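#lab-general

N.A. 3:47 PM
ok so I finally got the sequence cleaned up, no stray characters, all 70 residues accounted for. can someone with queue access submit it? mine expired

B.Y. 3:52 PM
send it over

N.A. 3:53 PM
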Amino acid sequence: MPCRLRKITVYETKSRFYIIGCDSTGSRYNVLKIDRVDPKALITGEPEYDYTREEILELLSTISDGSSGT
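B.Y. 4:20 PM
back already:
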């Protein structure tokens, strides 16, 4: 059964938007990545994968570490 998203949060870096949604229990997460590099092209990516809370926290840490260096 598909995951129904109840909460959506948007994170922004210089090169991408990350839209992260979770279900009502906070146990399943989905990610949509939107590339910002080319203003004339819409480049998106949505992995066919449900993330856990721990995996999302790790992803956000990686995003934060990467954006602080730019």
